[in-house]
Design a protein that fits this description.
The complex is a heterodimer of chains A (110) and B (86). Chain A has four helices and no strands. Chain A is mainly α and 110 residues long. Chain A is elongated and about 60 Å long. The termini of chain A are far apart. Chain B has a domain of 60 residues. Chain B is built from three helices and no strands. In chain B, helix 1 packs antiparallel against helix 2 and helix 2 packs antiparallel against helix 3. The longest helix of chain B has 26 residues. Chain B is flat and about 50 Å long. Classes of the chains: A mainly alpha (110), B mainly alpha (86). The interface between A and B is large, with 55 and 49 residues.
Chain lengths: 110, 86
């Protein structure tokens, strides 16, 4: 059964790094800063978590340390993205021309 | 089989790093570069974990742990600077 766990771990790692590629692709292709934050943060968080899960399948004795890394990623990555998005909105970063609605601007105007 | 898949994972992570690096070099504003830097640190954590697997040395995971814990501080510092100018 160890062989099956190895193959599952390898597939998880390939899937996770594929999500990293999607994140990088979104970073290149998306039209404005807020879309880039969205694509970059979400896709790379999932990709890194899948990579860590794959590493835990390949080396089960590292499981606790990998779980700790996953907890730190889950707690710090959304934080940095949120702080950056708030700063970008406050300095008036350019939005895509397709942007229809800006709820934060409406809330501040009221 | 597993070794081949891990090698493919290294290639894919390198491709993702190059895409983020392109945005880091080309990004029109400073905030775009900071987003690319944030993505590059997360990809770097994955790289360190894959490297620990390939080398078979669990001590490398401690480096990934510290990097995951501290890398967001740089992004927050630059975001505060952009926001307030000090």
């Amino acid at each position: 059964m160890a062989g099956l766990l190895d193959i599952v771990g390898g597939l998880l790692m390939v899937g996770g790094t594929a999500f990293l590629v999607f994140g990088g692709l979104g970073l290149v292709r998306m039209p404005d800063l807020f879309n880039r934050i969205h694509a970059g943060t979400k896709a790379t968080t999932l990709g890194t978590l899948l990579t860590l899960a794959g590493a835990a399948c390949l080396r089960p004795d590292w499981g606790w340390k990998l779980l700790l890394i996953a907890v730190f990623i889950l707690s710090t990555n959304p934080l940095s993205a949120q702080v950056l998005a708030r700063a970008a909105h406050r300095i008036g970063a350019a939005m895509s021309v397709k942007t229809r609605v800006d709820r934060l601007e409406e809330d501040q105007g009221a | 089989m597993a070794e081949a898949l891990v090698s493919l994972a290294v290639l894919l992570a390198g491709l993702a790093f190059l895409l983020a690096l392109w945005r880091f070099l080309a990004g029109p504003t400073a905030a775009d570069r900071v987003v690319a830097f944030d993505v590059m640190t997360v990809i770097g954590i994955s790289f360190i974990v894959i490297l620990a697997l390939l080398e078979g040395r669990g001590i490398y995971l401690d480096a990934a742990l510290v990097y995951a814990l501290l890398s967001f501080l740089g992004v927050i510092a630059v975001a505060r600077y952009l926001e307030r100018g000090y």
